[in-house]
Here is the input.
Amino acid sequence: MHATNIAPEPAAQGTDAPVDPRPRVIRASSALADRIFRGGSRLTGLLVFSIMGAIGLFLALRATEALRAVGLDFLTTAEWQPDVHRFGIAAVLTGTVLIALVAVSVSVPLATGTALFISEIAPTWLRQWLVSLVDLMAAVPSVVYGLWGLVFLEGSVIGLARWLATWFGWIPIFRVEGADPTDPLASASVFTASAFVAGLTVALMVAPIQCSVMREAFSQAPAGEREGAYALGATRWGMISSVVLPFGRGGMIGGTMLGLGRALGETIAVYMVISQVFEIQWHILRVGTNSVSSLIALRYGDASGFGLSALMAAGLALFVITLVVNFTASTIANRSRSGAQSEV
Amino acid sequence: MAIETKHQFGEHEREPVAVRPKVSTQIDVVPSVRPATGGGTVLPRELGPVPPRRQLGGVHRDELFNLLGAASTGLCVTILLFAWLAPFSGLIGFVVVAYVVFLAAYALLTALSADGPTVRDRIWTTVLWSAAAALFLGLFHVVGFTIWRGLPAMWHLNFFTEDLTTAGPLDPLSKGGVLHAVVGTLEMMTISLLITIPLGLACAVYLTQVGGRGSTLVRTIVEAMTALPSIVAGLFIYATLILILGFPQSGFAAATALSVMMLPIVIRAADVVLRLVPGGLREAAEALGAPRWRTVWYVVLPTARSGLVTSVILGAARGIGETSPVLLTAGYTTYLNANPIDGNQVSLPLLTFMLVRSGQPAYIQRGFGAAALLMAIVLALFVLARIFAGRAPGRVTARQARRLARQSARDEERMRRGGRYGLPGPAPGRDQQPDQQSVHLGDLP
Here is the structure.
């Protein structure tokens, strides 16, 4: 039980008694059970803190060993031969970022449109179903998306990739060398296992997550402002563009970044789809790319002690990037009107 | 619309205490009201026949025809383009061009009868419809494709009752199954939930209910760790538990890696849920003199129970489908190994990955079956989460409400008798008026 000890107040008997300006000192002395509870939960917090801190510290320490060996070459080398001290993340990081960018640029328009559709346009009876469906899709394991990407998308994306390469080949990242669009007998395998295929796979994987966060933000746009827009004669799109979108901007940015973080760190869906090359590959439609997590999945087994710390350095670089993305997202989302409530 | 109510005070009635002055809040919209000679309520004049209601929702007929016309325009123009006029080819190009032509035609048709904002509204509504349709089509295709390809494998009962020891790559689907992976998945999830639930919930309680100087630091690092890529969590366990401590690759190691990955997710979700518990409830408990642990145990946790269950289940759904930490830490087997401490184990996602990577057609089919089974488990978890999450914090079912009422009645009875926490024995004179205690506020004079 609480026993609250209150410092004795100065006896205020007369009206002209001196009043002590200092606030009362309130001390709470807890019972034994309560002290055990507080101590126990602090201990848990400390335990979680030390586990998480140990992971970060261990990663950083092991990574330093590898980083010290190659220095700044770590950022510019494309090869991965840690046993002869020639390794770097130039290739894998380029691949990771390209895959994530493809994923985000495909998924964000789809996710935003779907989120707006669910929160503004869908009939009421459909809405609850769609909300549950999106949340369910966000929980589908990534290996399922990888399976789909490997068995279905690899084959059927060739047409789209060839179309893009033919008509948009003048944009550098869409250019595919070694593919002649006018030759109908040319091998199509140059268009498979590319960053584009992996990006599309990951796009479908992260779109439900983004959609869920954005819908949450859109649906919280205040009814008064919506009705105000309608009262001023706005159409539904007028209302959406002048009330819902500005209100939900934080949620949109937060959701986009959340999806970007997931896309950067995704392992298995990417690993199943791509064919790994250790060179900087800018052309997203062309076969062969790489990612940091695929590199770890490929090389962990035969890594020596030093090779493992090189992998840890790559993992640490990925972690730092994801961390920056996540913190940027939460900072932007928390500053906006809608984003304060939206979370993973 | 003002319905005036006028009172006429007769001579026999006493003077009204205060006559409300005629204020201008009453707007006289009906000027031709009969003069209030007889008193009583004066109804407004009949306003004539009610005009038909405007239709606000739904699709107008001309809008429908516009849509149909634009769709056929898009289709025809694209067929013309692809077949006769230009050297276009390919299904994707066809769809893109047809869609663009459709949108342009629809804008044109709408612009014939409506103004700019309306045209923009219609176009954007169509675009949003198609975005949602495209996304759901894609997602359904992912799920449906996997289930469809997995059905042949799941059709055989031995898929659920045997392991892959005897089934070679060329054996038919009527031989061998994925029992070893199901057992592995269940054991890994049990172990990681045994680690995650107490640690995660206790840490969330610490963050929200105890707080203090350290809690901000803990919250920050937990938030940072949600960004940890799952393969890095696996790599950490592989480097420490397996390589440094010499633990074998096993289900336990995989469960540890999964816990490292799930813990921040569960803590964050539980933290959010616990913060939603109304402060008034906690303050009421503390005002009644409950120590902090009793407040948490009897008020905060029961209030947030459904949300906490949801956060744990969502964390479990993330963990159960995760492949990469298991790939690094569990090893891979084709035989049933029920011992999570010793020997390699395999989980459903890892088995799917390995089977599909082998490239053998029969194995790929089994891989699809394993993926479909995994999705079924995730779906079951999700339905569970929905059932628990259906209620907001503090809402109770009818059964819980009855139980709470019974408990409350028992408490009242105990306090009346003067029990352990009640008053020190019945006061003299109270026995004569036992009803005194249950006087409601409304009954007081």
